[in-house]
Amino acid sequence: MTNAAVPAAILDALAGTHPSWRPILLDGLQAVARADAGYLPTLVNSAYLPTQGRLFAAFAQPLDAVRYVLVGEGPYPRAESATGVCFMDGAVAGLWSDQPDGGLSKPVNKATSLRNFIKMLLVADGQLQPGHTSGAAIALVAARARAIGSPLVQTLADLQRNLLAQGFLLLNASLVFRTDVAPVRDARAWLPFLEVVLQALAARAAERGAAAPTLVLWGKIAERLQPLRVIEAFPQALSEHPYNLSFIAHAQMQALFGPLHLLQK
Question: pTM for this structure?
Answer without folding.
Answer: 0.95
